[in-house]
């Protein structure tokens, strides 16, 4: 349950944060945008883990267009389609203060007066949601330099804003995930528990095993989306917590994955 919950929560925004990397690693020195895109497109389909697959990257004369085949158990396409401005703002924030190679790619797109278009297609339903950054918006992103620490905070807040659009969510028979909150110390998943099926005292009594399961699932995930999520938490000095709250008593118990534990899960290249 915890593994799917995490992926559903941050899948969309994290996939977006990886998109430009697929171009920048291809050929940052190419002088022509068409050549860069053609090289990147030859790498498709690109597996981005359980979140989805980049099926093509093309230049249509106006935009660099990414087509993504999305796992609908993680990303609700209808929610993306119904919240275009939130989707666009989240993507713009994710590109703020980019890494050097990503910034060079953005500059190339801007110099060609091109935009970026991301077409999200549901793997099963075929439903589509499209987000487009115009050439002017790409240029605005490049100009919007900010303090790195503030940028990291904004990126995390953008992820949580998009994630919360998909809640509440039934995680299991006895647990409903209501939302994700940001506290001073943690990214907190608010989990309401049906105490007739699972008393909070039972979770507390088995907290060691519950945490062990969460840590094992996270540590086993090498896909880019999970790794970016972990790094975003670490860059913000945030642990990850599950707050289980009884629907009757209101009592709660937190299972916390600490910063040192999160750091151990980062795959070093």
UniProtKB/TrEMBL annotation:
Source organism of the structure: Bacteroides faecium
Domain of life (superkingdom): Bacteria
Protein name: Lipoprotein
